Every structure is written in structure tokens, then in C-alpha cells.
Amino acid sequence: MSAGLDRRALVAALVARRGSALLLAGLGSPAWDLAAAGDHPQHVHLWGGMGGAFAMGLGLALARPDRRVVVLTGDGEALMGLASLATIAAQKVRNLALLVLDNGVYGETGGQPTATSAGVDLAGIAAAAGFPTTRRLENPEQVQATVDLLLEAPGPVLVQARVEHRPLPLVLPPEDAVTEKRRLRAALGVGEAGAR
Amino acid sequence: MSAVDWSEGAHRAIARAGIRLLAHVPDAGLSPLLARCGRDPAIRLVGLADEREGPALLAGAWLGGLPGLLACQSSGVGNLVNMLGLSAVGRFPLPILVTMRGEWGEQNPWQVPMGQAVPAVLAAMGVRLFSLERAEEAEAVLDGALGLAFGSEQMVAVLVRQRLLGAKRFRAARASVP
Asked: In angstroms, rounded to a whole number, what is the distance separating the alpha carbons of residues A85 and A23?
């Protein structure tokens, strides 16, 4: 329907270069994209909590300054979580990057247009909030350089990637959030009695 | 209002529980605790633009091994309800400290609907409730609430009652309040 990048190829390129980075996918298509790239203990997939992925990424980035944290989410969720761009900018987290897979529609609910389809510039909003690194990604030849940016540029980073809107095979991630939580904490060496 | 400062005992319990992150939207009732925790080098204060960020932020922090607490006014409870689903499904420990408005001598009617609904709304989402009405009990109540939250991976809320905090004065009290 719309022109844009292949979202699965973009996410696969990120996963291929991930290294020790922690990847957190917001609900809907971004979670299916991350699942399609292969499951891993450093991956977290949300099935709900719309609007919370940016804040959850901030929490993880604050807890683990030794790790890069990349949040992948859609334009719909990003719009619901705009307040967190201010919160993140104020915290000046160097190790957090946000990748918005912007197809201009609410893909899980029937393809209704989002505000980005009317031209709302999420990268511009992030830049105005104080993110030191923001990009709009439209050219497939810039995918690798953008992946480098997500993994290495001084954060907070926001990349608004224009991706195509077309039906893709549904690849479901693990749906048990408790299991995902425990496996990531185990991978990070955090004990279950961490608070005490 | 009590001569004892409830925030002193609350901070002792927070420090003992190993809380390292205090996410908050400010409230006048919270200001003594925010100031006290802000002076504690072990605790990072994170100001939120919206209370709804709190459960998600604390879930992410917990994933990375950083225990946190969310503090907000009762009106903010309405803002975070759906995000409690994330904490519930992931069984993320989520302690919330709520300074209450709209209940004891409130002079701003706009605070009453949400303030009065707080216990029912939180209970409906599965949040375990504690009530703090006397400053002398702050440390014990926080100990119990934080112990439940982290020991059993629960969502808990401590409601700091307006009777303890005192009502914000907008106008001289009338001789006979209806």
C-alpha cells in the first residue's frame, strides 16, 4: 500500500549486529518483527501496556548503564508515549536508543491512519526534546549506518524509519512475560532476590 | 497533622528495602519525602511527565536489577491504570506510594472523584492496599508493603491519607461545613 523499507529486514539487520545490546519490542508488529528475527534471552516482547515501551526502555537503561538498550516500537505506540521523550531527554541516558517503525497506520486494528501519516515528525519532536541524535530513515542504503547509530551513537537516540505497510506472516514471540523476565534477569546475572 | 514527620520513617524503610530509583510526579504531600530521598546518594529521583510511565519504568529497571518505587498524588492513579497490566502479567514488583486528595477536608472539588475512587480502582487491578494514617506507623507500613512487593512480586500501594497530610487551604473554613 505504501512505499517504505522492509521492516523485517531492518529488524534482522539490527539483531545481526546486536552484540550485548538488550532489545525491547513494543506491542504489535514490532514484537512480531523481533520474534521473526529469532528468539533470544536479550529480547523482550510486549503484548500490551501500549505507550509504555519507551519508559520501560528507560528503566532498563538506567539499571544497566553497561549495556546498550534499543527499544523498537511502532508509530502508534510512540505517539501514545510522547511524554516519555521528555522524561528520557531529561535523564540524559547515553545508552538508550529508540527505533520507531513508522508505517503511518495502526496495523493491529485495521490500518487506520496515525498522526505520522499526516506528517507529524517524531524525530523532530525528539530533537526538540533534547535527544542529541535523531534521524529519519527512508533509504535502504542507509540501513547499516543507521543500525550503527542505534547501537553506538551517544544517546538518547531516536530513529524514525519509514517502513512499508503490507501483510506479513504473524510470528508470535513467547507470550509468558514472567518467563521472559526471568531469563533476561538470569542473562544479566541479576538474582531473584535482587531487592533485598 | 502530626508532629512526627511521616517521611522520616518512610525513608528509613525505603532505604532498608534497597530502593535505588524513586519515580514520581510531584505532589505537595510528597515533597518532604522527595526532598529526603533526594539527599540520599543511593536513590536516583526520576521525574515523570505522566504517572503512566511509572509501572513501565519500574518494570524495565527491575529487569536490570534496580529496585524502584513510584510516588504520585491520588489523581495520578487514574493515569496509570492500564499500565498496571504490564506489571500484573510480568509479575513485576510494583510499590506505589499515593498521597491522597479528595477525602479529608478537601477544598478542591475537582480532587474528589478520583481521590474517592482510588482504593476501588487499585483493588480492581489487583493492587494490594495499605493505609498510612499515623506518622508513627510510616516505617512499619512501608516495611510491610515493600516486603510484600519484592518478596512476592506483587503490586502494592500505600495510601498516605489526607488526614495525616492535611488539607490544602484554598479559603477560610466556613463555620459550618455542610
From this structure: 18
pTM of the model: 0.95
Strands of the B68-73 sheet, one edge to the other: B44-47, B21-24, B68-73, B94-99, B155-160, B128-132
* Record: contact B18-A195, CB cut-off 8 A: yes
Looking at residue B153, what DSSP letter applies? T
C-alpha cell at A135: 534521524
Count Cα neighbours of A82 within 13 Å in the Cβ-side half-sphere.
Answer: 14
Domains of chain B: 6-165 (3.40.50.970)
Q: What is the ipTM of this complex?
A: 0.95
SS3 B55: helix
Q: What's the pLDDT tens digit per position in A129-188?
A: 999 999 999 999 999 999 999 999 999 999 999 999 999 999 999 889 999 999 999 999
The pLDDT value recorded for residue A28 is 95
Cis status of the peptide bond prior to A156, with omega within 30 of 0 = yes
| B66 contacts B20 by C-beta, under 8 angstroms | yes
Chain A residue numbers with beta carbons less than 8 Å from the beta carbon of B91 are: 177-178, 181
Domain made up of A7-176: CATH architecture: 3-Layer(aba) Sandwich (3.40)
Distance of CA A71 to the CA centre of its chain: 3
CA separation for the pair B8, A63 (Å, rounded):
26
Q: For residue A105, give how far its alpha carbon lies from the nearest alpha carbon of chain B (Å).
A: 22
Choose among A49, A57, A61: nearest Cβ to B86.
A49
How far is A17 from chain B, CA to nearest CA, in Å? 21
Q: Under an 8 A CB cutoff, do B63 and A59 touch?
A: yes
Q: How far is CA A80 from the centre of its chain?
A: 14
| Cell output for B73 | 498524588
Per domain, the residue ranges of chain A are: 7-176
In this predicted model, what pLDDT tens digit does every residue of B109-133 receive, in sequence order? 999 999 999 999 999 999 999 999 9
Instruction: For residue A196, give the nearest of B44, B52, B150 by CB distance.
Output: B150
Write the single-letter amino acid at B140: A
pLDDT (tens digit per residue) in A16-39: 999 999 999 999 999 999 999 999
Contacts of B50 in chain A (CB under 8 A): 83-84
